[in-house]
Amino acid sequence: MQTKEQSPPILLFNDECGVCRSIARWVKNQVPSGSGTTSIVVRPIGQDPEELRALNQGLNIWDAYATIHLLMPDGSMKLGGEAVAEVLRNLPSTRWFTWTFEISVFGIRPFQATLNLAYAILADVRPVFGCESCGTPSPWVRPIRWIVKWAGSLFGGIHHPSPIRHFSSLPGRGRPPQTLHI
Amino acid sequence: MSGNKSIDKIRTVSASTFDRLVLKGEGPIVVEFMSYGCAHCGVIEPDLQQVAAIVETTEKIFRVNIAVDRELADLYQIQGTPTLIMFLNGEVVGREEGPSPDVSNILAVVRQPYEP
Question: Where are the domains positioned within chain B?
Fold first, then answer.
């Protein structure tokens, strides 16, 4: 049990998403190395549901891809903005301001709420930056995507590294059934 | 995605088991080409699980993870995920790319190629 308490939190990231890879790389670079211990482990979600379940019984691979997950040493999981806050708490370069996330005003934590909102916005805009597997952009993001595509076409196009194109125009629930033909 | 936490009704096939389970399999067989990182695949997953439960006596539904088995994706010219390919006696009899995430729609998609 003592060993489990000493193990660092594990940050899972979507290795099919360029934005997520960049953030994961930034976190890795912030983790001090050389001391033999690490404050946080950064690893891709991967493709094996059983391997993930071995890390945490309650961890579902679909959920892991849908929202950022931080696996805590005590067996709990932090998601979304709460996970981001915990990651920042574990990094020496950002730890100094993370006390603000605990400030509560009438039961509301304004800085944490802002972080949650920032995470939600970032998650929504990922398709704009070439993450085709991240789903259909939310309605508020679509104009931004059109502008980025238009700008990309002016400057020779935006390169999408994935050779497999995901269906980004998949209609959402509640809409009439539609077949996509390519 | 509460539907994902129940028993998995869809078995994963790989390049090594595809021939035995799909091409030499008996009866109607549906293969979903997907990847776990594909948000659209995650959206249709609960519905596909329901469909798999509904048709389990007449059809088998498998999945191929194209992030792992890219050669199968190339072989079947998968242009995106999710793509459903319907097989009968080793032959492709139907194909649907990006099905609408709706149980009745997916049910129609996986049944239509096998209807007389």
Answer: 12-114
| Residue B100 to chain A, least CA–CA distance (Å) | 5
Taking the CB of residue B101, how many other CB atoms lie within 10 A of it?
Answer: 24
- CATH, range A2-97: 3.40.30
> Is CATH 3.40.30.10 the classification given to domain B12-114?
yes
Total residue length of chain A = 182
Residue in B with minimal Cα distance to A178:
B100
- Per-residue pLDDT tens over the stretch B42-75: 999 999 999 999 999 999 999 999 989 999 999 9
* Contact between chains at A65 and B73 (C-beta distance less than 8 A): no
Whole-model pTM: value is 0.78
Report the candidate in A60, A67, A103 with the shortest Cα–Cα distance to residue A84.
A67
Q: Do A167 and B80 touch (CB under 8 A)?
A: yes
